[in-house]
C-alpha cells in the first residue's frame, strides 16, 4: 500500500475516534446521566481533554491525512513527485499535533481516574478517593457518578492511546513517503 493511501486509512480511523472522544467529554458534564450544577462537576471535566485534545486537535491531522492520497502540491522544480514528497513530510508535523492532543487527553484522563469524581459524601462535597479511600458507596450524589466518571475517562484514556499510536505510525509513514516517493517499489507514480 502506498504511503498516501495508508495515510488516508489512518485519517478515516481518526475521525470516528475523535467524535467518540468529544461525545464522552460532553457526557461527563452530566454525571450519572442527569444535569447538575457546574460546581458539582469534577475539575478534570473542565480541562476538555476529550473535546480539545482528542477531539478538535485530532481533526487537523485526520483531515490532512485524508487529503494526502491526491495531494500533489503542484510539484516543484519540474518534478511532479517533489510536491507529494513534501506533502508527506509536512504530514509529520500534523501527526505531531495529533500526538500532543492525544497525549493531553491521556494525561487528563489518568489524573481524573486517579483522583476520582467530585461528589457529595456524608461530610459534604469533596473528592473522597483523593486520600486513597476507595469505598465507592461513599458518593451519595450524583447517583452512579463513580461508575460514570470511571467508564467515560477510561474510554477517553483508551482512545487517546489509540490516537497517539496512529499518529506515531503516520510519522513513520510520512518519513517513508518523503524518502521513497509515491510508491516504494511501485511503477505507477500515483497514490493508489
UniProtKB/TrEMBL annotation:
<keyword id="KW-1133">Transmembrane helix</keyword>
<dbReference type="Pfam" id="PF05805">
    <property type="entry name" value="L6_membrane"/>
</dbReference>
<keyword id="KW-0472">Membrane</keyword>
<dbReference type="InterPro" id="IPR008661">
    <property type="entry name" value="L6_membrane"/>
</dbReference>
<feature type="transmembrane region" description="Helical">
    <location>
        <begin position="45"/>
        <end position="68"/>
    </location>
</feature>
<comment type="similarity">
    <text>Belongs to the L6 tetraspanin family.</text>
</comment>
<feature type="transmembrane region" description="Helical">
    <location>
        <begin position="150"/>
        <end position="169"/>
    </location>
</feature>
<feature type="transmembrane region" description="Helical">
    <location>
        <begin position="12"/>
        <end position="33"/>
    </location>
</feature>
<feature type="transmembrane region" description="Helical">
    <location>
        <begin position="89"/>
        <end position="113"/>
    </location>
</feature>
<dbReference type="GO" id="GO:0016020">
    <property type="term" value="C:membrane"/>
</dbReference>
<protein>
    <submittedName>
        <fullName>Transmembrane 4 L six family member 4</fullName>
    </submittedName>
</protein>
<keyword id="KW-0812">Transmembrane</keyword>
Amino acid at each position: 500500500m502506498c504511503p498516501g493511501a495508508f495515510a488516508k486509512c489512518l485519517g478515516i480511523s481518526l475521525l470516528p475516534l475523535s467524535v467518540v472522544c468529544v461525545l464522552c467529554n460532553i457526557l461527563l458534564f452530566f454525571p450519572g446521566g442527569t444535569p447538575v450544577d457546574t460546581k458539582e462537576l469534577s475539575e478534570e471535566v473542565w480541562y476538555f481533554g476529550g473535546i480539545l485534545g482528542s477531539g478538535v486537535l485530532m481533526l487537523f491531522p485526520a483531515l490532512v491525512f485524508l487529503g494526502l492520497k491526491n495531494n500533489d502540491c503542484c510539484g516543484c522544480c519540474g518534478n511532479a513527485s517533489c510536491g507529494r514528497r513534501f506533502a508527506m513530510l509536512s504530514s509529520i508535523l500534523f501527526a505531531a499535533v495529533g500526538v500532543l492532543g492525544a497525549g493531553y487527553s491521556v494525561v487528563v484522563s489518568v489524573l481524573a481516574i486517579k483522583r476520582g469524581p467530585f461528589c457529595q459524601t456524608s461530610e459534604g462535597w469533596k473528592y473522597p478517593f483523593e486520600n486513597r479511600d476507595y469505598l465507592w458507596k461513599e458518593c451519595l450524589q450524583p447517583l452512579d457518578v463513580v461508575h460514570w466518571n470511571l467508564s467515560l475517562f477510561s474510554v477517553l484514556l483508551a482512545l487517546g492511546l489509540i490516537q497517539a499510536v496512529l499518529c506515531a505510525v503516520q510519522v513513520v509513514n510520512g518519513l517513508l513517503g518523503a524518502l521513497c516517493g509515491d510508491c516504494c517499489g511501485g511503477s505507477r507514480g500515483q497514490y493508489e
